[in-house]
Amino acid sequence: MKTQPHAPNSHSTNEADAGDLTTVELLWLEKRIENRIRFGRPVSEKVLDRNRRVLSFSPGSVFAFVRWTSNDFGTVLSRIDILRAVTPGQPYSTVPWITPGGESLLRLSGWPKVERALQMIDVVEALGIDPADAAPDYWHHVHNRLSVNETPRPYTRSRHQAWLHRRGVTS
Questions:
Q1: Before 88, cis peptide (omega within 30)?
Q2: Interval 33-42: pLDDT, tens
Q3: Which of 36, 76, 88, 94 has the fewest C-beta atoms under 10 angstroms from its C-beta?
Q4: Nearest-CA neighbor of 84 among 161, 168, 6?
Q5: pTM here?
Q6: Among residues 47, 65, 43, which one has the least CA distance to residue 56?
Q7: In terms of Cα–Cα distance, which of 83, 153, 144 is closest to 120?
């Protein structure tokens, strides 16, 4: 995992400039490759062809990127990354298919761990909370616990309220 500084634009506006956006290329080739967004709020979408799309995310937004690849012998890759889109000048981790990259909140590979991460996302959604709005430190917690085959603590409404309060105080 490589960390690069994100070059700031030479001009600024109140809205995110197109150069400030984090782009994710999604690819779907039946029974071969599936790159998809599990959650997140893209600000734009560009359809390249029937198999490829590019989604763009504003700086600071959180999204989950799931990748799956197979060949004639079975699954070759299962991976999930939960990332926060970077703001100009902020360091970031490079991730295939994502330009420039993002702040890594969770990165897991191997179907059993990916499946557990997807289940943890489902738990957050079952609370009526958009996973993109969950506390970023929760996704770090899930990453750390699943990395060592331990069970993460579930996300709760009280944890979410504490995050919203903390975020309001620091804003």
A1: no
A2: 999 999 999 9
A3: 76
A4: 6
A5: 0.86
A6: 43
A7: 153
